Write the structure tokens for this entry.
Amino acid sequence: MDALEKQIQKTIQTDWNDHVPLPGLMTANASCRKYPALEGCDVVHVQMQDIATSLASCHSDQRSSLCQTVVAVFGPIANELPPAKPIQLPMVPWYVHMPTSFLDVYAGHYGYRTQVAVWWWTSWRTSILSCLAVFATVLGAWFWWVMSRNRKQQHEQSLAIEHEQRMEQNRILNERHAQARLAAERQSRMEWEAVKAEQERLAKIEAAEELVEMERTRLETEQAEAAELMDAIFNQASRGET
């Protein structure tokens, strides 16, 4: 019994990346059928079931090099494997794991992912290219719309800037016109005030001259009246003496 268990342990601990210990598994499986209580038989059953499921899955789809090899190598012993139902193998290149450990280990050795990628691309190429064309058209339309919107915004901004510049120029011109008008008004007021002052000065001079003339006339009149009075007095005195 110890020898059988050692053989079972050696078999189930074999790295499948090196090779599948098919003869050892067959022997271990026979021992486990005869002595089900042997240690490691549960692992033997799991591994045998894994191989059976892998073979059944590849029987249902033999397009890949992986499945062709599996069927060719393990097909002759299919009757000695436990019954198994096929599992759908991945048909897209971005799968994470194969459905069985055996297929997962050997898929990389036979380029399964590359083959699936070719099948997938062949199947979906037309749809993908059509979608890309539609996407490119939509993207181009979107870019055109964005560029048109940007050009429109830039045009509106340019118009707004030009409007602001015109408003600023008009404001400056209005300020200059207002300043010029105020300066002209101030100049006119100063000239009018100068003329008014000159008129007032001339009026004062004329009034002073009139006063002087009136005073001179008054003095002449008083002198004339005084002379007449003196003549009258002198004539009376002359008549009295006679």
